[in-house]
Amino acid sequence: MRVIVTGGNSGVGAATATALAVLGHDVMIACRDVDKAQRVAVEMPGNIEVRSLDLADLASVRTFADSVETVDVLVNNAGVMGMPLTRTVDGFEAHMGINHLGHFALTCLLGERIKDRVVSVASATYLFTHLDLADLNWHTRKYSKWAAYGQSKLANLLFVRELANRGVRAYASDPGATDTDITRSMGMGEHQRIRKLLHTPAQGARASLEAVTTDLPTGTYLAPRFNQLGAPTVTKLRPKAVDPAMARRLWELSAELTGCDWAI
């Protein structure tokens, strides 16, 4: 299969890309830091291609999508976490703009060129927040970087739900607590005892890898057996992550904000 992995130059994304290449799939790493990705790709086995994609810039997303002829699986893996209030090129709050809206635009622009499925990497942090569609990009609310991250992950889950509702094969995966650049930058992996408890990137990639090949029903959520730790298993989502009305409204708002839609 031909697989695109966004953010495949580090962490869980790199582990996902590596494992897919080992299995014989053609893998395209799509990321902002092309030089870093090329250095990483040299160490990967199999057929690896690197292309530029900046999810914080819709013009870059369009340019990248225009360059893709066809793809079997799109893995929406790239993401940011715990950022101070920052805005993308298009004025979106960075967590929502990169983690959700950039991937929404990419998925819709590729549209029917995605031949098999979409996999979106989510997070259990969705449990602690709710979406505010009236202020999706934090223009009027008091900003919270953790709430912003959690809401972007809830948006990922609702996006998967709406894709499934529209007949697209789509899955959500959750790496759990994983020792990557993101967690280390948050101070979560500094203490050796804590780091020993975290998943390795390869362990964190297990849910996405299962989602790439599973025959489970579209819309399935694969997450660690013990919430943040353990092998992936089918996990029931809270009602707010599968609310059909909210999923449809988020899709409509995302299409309006990005100027991208997929008439499935």
From TrEMBL:
| Parts of the chain that traverse the membrane | none
Q: Which GO terms describe its molecular function?
A: oxidoreductase activity
Specify whether Metal-binding is a keyword of the entry. Answer: no
Output the superkingdom of the source species. Answer: Bacteria
| Pfam families xref list | adh_short
Q: Which keywords does the record carry?
A: Oxidoreductase
Which family is this protein grouped under?
Answer: Belongs to the short-chain dehydrogenases/reductases (SDR) family.
This protein is called: Retinol dehydrogenase
